[in-house]
Task: inverse folding
């Protein structure tokens, strides 16, 4: 029940931040949504009664499925790279004003 409530809070906060006008808040919202999806993936692949995949003598029926854990690890890396790219784009495009041309010091001769 606590995990479901955590997923609900993460999704709610992520959607709220994603709907804001600020690019940085949208990046944080995307990160929260990613964490919620990671929790969902982990809950589908690792029930509480299963054991670790590498042990000394358990049968293959009772061990946890390592595939969702690999998906979550890959999703964490992809989310980190996407967040860094989006934050860099937010910094670069912060003062993007197309109404006025930048001052270059050059003069135009007719």
Result:
């Amino acid at each position: 029940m606590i995990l479901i409530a955590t997923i609900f809070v993460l999704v709610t906060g992520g959607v709220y931040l994603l709907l804001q006008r600020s690019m940085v808040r949208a990046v944080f919202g995307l990160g929260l949504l990613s964490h919620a999806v990671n929790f969902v993936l982990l809950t589908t692949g690792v029930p509480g009664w299963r054991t670790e995949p590498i042990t000394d003598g358990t049968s293959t029926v009772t061990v946890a499925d390592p595939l969702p854990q690999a998906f979550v690890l890959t999703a964490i890396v992809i989310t980190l790279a996407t967040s860094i790219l989006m934050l860099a784009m937010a910094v670069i495009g912060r003062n993007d004003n197309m109404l006025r041309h930048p001052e270059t010091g050059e003069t135009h001769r007719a």
